[in-house]
Amino acid sequence: MSEPGPRRIRHLLSLAVVQLAVSGAAIALIAGHSERAPTLVTLHLGIVAALVSFAVWLQAAFLQLAPDARVLRALFACLPGALFLALFVVYVMDVVALQHWGHMVSFPLVRQFLGNLGNVVAQVPVRSAVCFGFVALAIAFFRWNAAGLRGELTALFARRTALKLSVGIACVTVLFAWSAGRLLRAPSLWSQEPLFALLDLRLPQSSLPPADAPPEGFADYPRTTLARRPHVVLIVADALRAASMGVYGYERPTTPHLRELVDAGRLARVDLGLASCSQSECGVLSVLGSQDAGNEASRRIKLHDALHAHGYRIHFLLSGAHLAWQGLASFFGPNVDVVRDDPTNDDANLVRALREVPAASADQPAFFYLHLMSSHWFGVQQRDHQRYQPTAKRFDWLYDVQRVFASENEAVGLRQHVVNRYDNSVIQADAIIARLLGVLEAKGYLDDAIVVITSDHGEALGERGEHHYGHGIDLYQELIRIPILFGEFGAGKSAAHGGAPAKADSGSRDLGAADYAVQADIAPTVLDRIGAPIPTSWDGISLVRGERERSFHAAAVPGARSRSGRDERVEALIERSEDGSLHKLLRFLERDGGEFAVVRRELYELRSDPGERRDLADSAPSRLAALEAQLDAHFASALASE
After folding, report:
1. How far apart (Å, rounded) are the C-alpha atoms in residues 282 and 296?
2. How far is it, in rounded angstroms, from Cα 244 to Cα 434?
3. Predicted TM-score (pTM) of this structure
4. 108 — pLDDT class (breaks 50, 70, 90)
């Protein structure tokens, strides 16, 4: 059998060239401006070349072993197209995940989305169909090339020399990729490589801790007899910032329901509520575990553990992929009776899930943790709440490109699209909260209940330039100032729905005296209100008994997402002075080799400058030094463990 000529080999080369070109562009986008981008690109292309070589070799080997198996031969002809599709999906998921969360995608998260594929597909907008059309055309191209290669591959690998050569090429490519990572001695580089990040066994797995592994401090937590055991409802709206809420003074009426509750005395508003960080993981941990930034430990006793010890039935109803996202499932622990999430990010499903909960029981109080995604960029927005137009689209992947290359005036207009979308999402979150409270009232849970409404972190909307969108990027006020609202609903119909004031309104007014609090104060305040002991390991304070004087905050920014291309860390300290002023020190660090080094400091007074526009670092050196000494003392252990 004669060897194939150059024209036939062209089919084989076209497959490899197209795949490597697409993979090269994708890995360059993922690597961004990292100082190790060239190495990462080379490493990934070596792995892809190995996969393409293996796919071609597998086709040829099958054609040699079973040349007459038409059905299987057709399936093997689709192998290059399937490889292209799989890699394309991984690239898209990683780009989106890095942009919004700073994390690569892992298999547990992918598996959870596939398990809800029907709901996920239902949320895909028409514009995204263009992207899927491109994928279909690419697969058709690969399918056509693969079909044309049947004869060529048979001829090419008819002689064992060529077969051995292809195996050798694949082995050398794999060896090169493995050796490159070994020689670099940089585990963080592998965590940025899409395929190894997908397979990384060190990533948190989507499973709850075993029942025989109770949280630290749970065995020693005192079980006392409570005179009152009200239901406890904790509502966390993801990425909800106070600055865009009408109830916190925003010029647009984005939260009419919450404003009604506050005006009626049903909810008490903490004027300056702060998140411990600008990411979900530490934000949720701070809310549930009353832990300050730098002291995070997911295994410690949390609010629902303490309530479980007093006979509460624990419900976690979550919008979003919490069970598979970066180990969030480990925060819940074994003392949970019902846990349910929905990766479609559609809060309508959260309302449906709450409707399935049985009615309240007089013999057993309940704790509800309800997590909303309406105010998150990926939250599904319903048509009824699209008040402000024009608005940015949920899956508009070209939007960032348009904004970067737009003129100054055009960029302002595009930013307004984002602001409009976010304001619409806040309107929806307010409406969803109203619906959730309505369901809880209908089931009898608000006959005697403590309700807390808050968020895990805020959201940046381009206030500081084109790279300042989303969350998890720093600790300016737009990213950590969040709503914290407390309410107590007593016997009878609540005023939230037109009834008479509840008996416990005075308790809500007591909480209204707090003008400064953090997430860590929520859990101890709830336990204090019901007369339950507060775990000694908690960092927060009960707002019923005192006022906060200072708070610490931190955010970690991976190199794949940072502006410098290095791992970054931001730390902050806010302290109240005797005259009532609030000074905030921001300290920005970058990893230089194996340690973090401070690259700049900023100092603001939040009462007179809530937008953080006047940096006082140069004009108040003594205050700067005093605050930095406190930061050093607080984060010393955290930095030592990095």
Report:
1. 7
2. 18
3. 0.77
4. low
